[in-house]
Write a structure and sequence with these properties.
Strand content: 5-15%
Oligomer: single chain
Largest sheet: 5 strands, mixed
Order of helices and strands: HEHHHHHEEHEEHEHHHEH
Helix content: 40-55%
Distance between the termini: 23 Å
Shape: globular
Length: 280
Amino acid sequence: MEGGALRAIFSSGVCDCLLDGKIMVDYVIGVSAGIAYGVSYVSRQPRRNLEVVTRYANDRRYMGLNNLADKDNQSYFGLRFAYDTIPNQLVPFDYDTFAAYPGQVEAVVTNLNTGRADYLEVPRQDRHSLVLQATCAMPLLFPVYELDGQPYLDGGVADSIPWRRALEQGCDRVLVVLTKTRNYVRRSDRMMAMIRRKYKEYPKFVSAMEHRAERYNESRKCLFQLEEQGKILVIAPRSTLGVTRTERNTEKLRLLWAEGYQQTVERIEEIRRYFDCSGQ
């Protein structure tokens, strides 16, 4: 699952339809909000993410510049509220079902020292979600996360669509969920001057940011070629409906979720045949 902050509600629509259709895969990998939302698929909680974003998208505790200005938070998103208060109190996450999942769940993070992607197992009982915070840590909008002695930011910098990782892990049937339309072409980051200053002590990370667009576009080109060959299934929004990464319009968020759900409804038998699912 590709990232995209609140645009990943499209992916939640896809996952919720898979849950309703009793389709559960044995390996899940995602980037940023793709996996932060994706764990609700593994915990078998359809519409949980939709409830979160429609209840809290306009809550300043959830996101806003006041959070970024808070020296104890240093993120556009309220970290304690989003990753602790919501899953542990307000819209409870089912840790027991998540822990019982027999497959593997990975999040992509970008190592600032190497400029490359690392693939971290999402801990089953981590109620502070540090790995999920790290994969979502957009440059300039989040603090740097140190995990096992390594500094990390958003996995989308190094590997925005980790379909190659799934193949490397031995998956022979891969369903890729994008959050950009099929005709999307990434351009160079307009904030590169600020990124060079902010992360000058991590030159390989800066280089990764400089080449992010070309790597992303090449990855999608190869992905669509494999789709044409029938080797991978891809679901992408026909339109993102103008939804931004920090969207506050809850009606637009509902519509983008519905777009993901409806597309999956239309392709559910194709997906079932591809995975050879019995529906049980």
